[in-house]
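Exercise 3.2. Students should predict the tertiary structure of the chain below and write it as structure tokens, then compare their answer with the key that follows.

Predict this chain's 3D structure.
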Amino acid sequence: MGKVDVIIIGGGINGAGIAQCAVASGFSVLLLEKGEVGGQTSANSSKLIHGGLRYLETGQFPLVRKSLAERRRLLTLAPTLVKPVPFYIPVYRNSHRNQWTVRAGLSLYALLSEFDPLGRFKSLPAVQWSKIKGLKLQGLRAVFQYWDAQTDDKALTQAVIKSAESLGAKVLQDATCESITHRPDDCEVKYTHLDQEFVVQASSVINAAGPWVNEVLDCVAPPMVKEEVELVQGTHLLLDISPPDGILYLESCFDERVVFVMPWKGKTLLGTTETSIECLVHQPEPTREEQFYLLGIYRHYFPGSGSVEKLEALIVETFCGVRVLPKHSGSAFESPREILQLQRISHPRILSLYGGKLTTFRATSKEVVTWVERLLGKRVLLDNVDKMPLY
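Answer key:
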């Protein structure tokens, strides 16, 4: 492959989605993934396809509306991979968010879903509260039930890549980008694959390397100005405990964050944390503080589960994802979740993606391909991604 229209660096959910959308739009595509497709951050999320109810607290209404629309489309396009699941929000006497605040938030959530059937919610009568096995009833004032969706994030990413390859995209795993030389008419990209070095010319380069986005920009010549970011680790714990019937949306007893208790592969999954890290030099691992944070919250809401030490012995798996958030002075919880698409006037053929959500990868992909079309012109459409099933 001597020259291509689009080179994508990174085989996570955003890279996969861009590859599918770009090749469907008639562009030749080469994707380079340094490990396994969908094997890093896109395999270590909270497994949710959701609107982001908590984003309403920080006024991110357009993101919530977009996410809810994408949830609806993914439920149609990938019914075996994305499934609706009930969520439960218990509200206690001392909760920071009282039942009227939660009801107002769910009402707005339903409105932003544009009256999707999954937008409905209800307040469960007190006689049904005990059906949530083990949930603390003391001080409980209300329980709300609404709907979102759950997925196998890695399987979804690989399904999107499979779709892209079926249309002609070339995908290389264990391929490392070594250098990108930006020139007036194209970019020269050097990469290694199977211990061999290759050189390819590309009319455009999409940097979708996730937490390693700035490391890729370090390979660009002439040098390119990077965006200042914060890396935030999100830890999850899988416990050998029978799973709940749905997903519990819990307010942390230590701060005002939200933590989920979820069914996953016949067990109970807890997540997530938001811990700032300085750099990413190896596979992230949960800290002891993060483990005790999550286990402490679980024990608070499920007091019959035993001591934190007993719960720790039930951990069968841990995993961490890393988010890329814009650098700011507030907490990670308050940071905007909209993806940043960075382009510099000095390097008009390179587009870098900072952040983003699993749920909105299709919308992001379309925005990126629109940028490619402005740069290279439109091509003959091969297929419509809005009608391509994922399985």
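Discussion points: The two ends are 28 Å apart (CA to CA). The CA atoms of residues 213 and 246 lie 35 Å apart.
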